[in-house]
Amino acid sequence: MNKFDVNRYEGVFHYFDENRDGKISPSELQACVMRIGGELLLEESEAVTESLDSDGDGMLELEDFVGLMEAEGEEEKMRDMKQAFGMYEMDGSGFITAKSLKRMLSRLGMSRPMDECSIMITRFDLNGDGMLSFDEFCIMMHN
Question: What CATH number labels 90-142?
Answer without folding.
Answer: 1.10.238.10
